[in-house]
């Protein structure tokens, strides 16, 4: 099989001879969609949660009683920021993968040594520049050096005045849990190669706990997460020629105890024919479309996974309920 530069099989690229609006979605994304949705176990990429409506729904999720991760991580950061800032040190760069609004990072920017450069990395170039301008206004003493890149693929870091070994990757929000362990390990190895020997990794990860607490966090009583999940279909109808009838699906969130992860699905409520990205398939009643995985770790389990990618645990900070962890690792 010929694998092209974008890591996609030539056969897959040939399949993509479908009409799509390149202003709304790029060719690789169409191939990724087709590969996931037209398989025996249909799936759709979680990145389509986050259009404007989805981002607003996620902000609402973060305020829900049941959804503890965001507020718990924020409380750990507030309580332990001085230790974290000491661990980050006084030189080099803080490189944030998937920085988004950088709102969660402002606490670190307020407390970090002034010589540490902040490098927000995000796939959306325009939004990233707007965020970087706001940060330069609010932190005029701090060097801000944004990089527009998809962090799930290797990207080049410009050389830094400080020794590479003083760089720290920052990866909050338990986003590492959204990747299958094999790819999470690949990502951790990529981060390690970027900072070199002696570099750091400051990372948030959600901890294993009572499955009832976990399932409630992803299937709240008010149904906000259900709307968040369904909105993915509305987004794909808009950008990828989908004809999903949102009334014909129901939100499902289950804890998979064997793989230690929440799995979110959209379950078909009836036998139906669906079109997406120029192709059609049937979905049987009760057939499920996987839309998100959210892996939950133990501190030791995450430490072992990080060690296999060349990271040594330096410090772990947890909340009093041991619901969530932020760790500092060294390469
Ligand atoms: C923002 C990806 C970390 O996986 O917990 C929230 C997204 N999904 N509710 C998570 C999410 C359902 C969240 N991440």
UniProtKB/TrEMBL annotation:
The lineage of its organism: Bacteria, Pseudomonadati, Planctomycetota, Planctomycetia, Pirellulales. GO terms for biological process: methylation. NCBIfam families: egtD_ergothio. Pfam families: Methyltransf_33 (PF10017). It comes from Rhodopirellula baltica (strain DSM 10527 / NCIMB 13988 / SH1). It comes from the Bacteria. Residues 33-330 form the Histidine-specific methyltransferase SAM-dependent domain. This is Histidine-specific methyltransferase SAM-dependent domain-containing protein. GO terms for molecular function: L-histidine N(alpha)-methyltransferase activity. Keywords: Methyltransferase, Transferase.
């Amino acid at each position: 099989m010929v694998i092209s530069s974008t890591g996609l099989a030539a056969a897959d690229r040939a399949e993509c001879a479908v009409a799509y609006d390149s202003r709304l979605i790029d060719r690789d994304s169409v191939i990724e969609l087709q590969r996931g949705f037209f398989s025996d176990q249909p799936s759709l990429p979680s990145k389509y949660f986050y259009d404007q409506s989805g981002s607003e729904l996620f902000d609402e999720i973060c305020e829900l009683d049941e959804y503890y991760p965001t507020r718990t991580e924020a409380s750990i950061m507030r309580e332990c920021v001085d230790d974290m800032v000491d661990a980050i040190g006084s030189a080099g760069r803080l490189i944030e993968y998937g920085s988004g609004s950088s709102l969660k990072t402002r606490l670190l920017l307020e407390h970090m040594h002034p010589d540490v450069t902040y490098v927000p990395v995000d796939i959306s170039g325009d939004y990233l520049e707007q965020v970087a301008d706001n940060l330069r206004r609010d932190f005029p003493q701090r060097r801000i050096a944004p990089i527009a890149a998809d962090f799930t693929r290797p990207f080049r870091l410009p050389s830094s005045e400080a020794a590479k070994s003083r760089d720290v990757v920052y990866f909050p929000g338990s986003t590492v849990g959204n990747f299958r362990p094999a790819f999470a390990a690949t990502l951790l190895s990529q981060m390690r190669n970027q900072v070199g020997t002696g570099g750091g990794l400051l990372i948030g990860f959600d901890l294993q706990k009572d499955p009832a607490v976990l399932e409630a966090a992803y299937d709240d009583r008010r149904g906000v997460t259900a709307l968040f999940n369904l909105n993915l279909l509305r987004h794909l109808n808009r950008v990828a020629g989908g004809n999903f009838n949102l009334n014909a699906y129901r939100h499902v969130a289950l804890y998979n105890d064997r793989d230690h992860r929440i799995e979110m699905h959209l379950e078909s409520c009836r036998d139906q024919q669906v079109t997406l990205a120029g192709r059609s398939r049937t979905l049987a009643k009760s057939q499920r479309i996987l839309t998100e995985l959210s892996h939950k770790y133990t501190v030791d389990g995450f430490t072992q996974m990080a060690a296999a990618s060349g990271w040594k645990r330096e410090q772990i900070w947890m909340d009093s309920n041991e619901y969530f962890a932020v760790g500092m690792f060294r390469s």
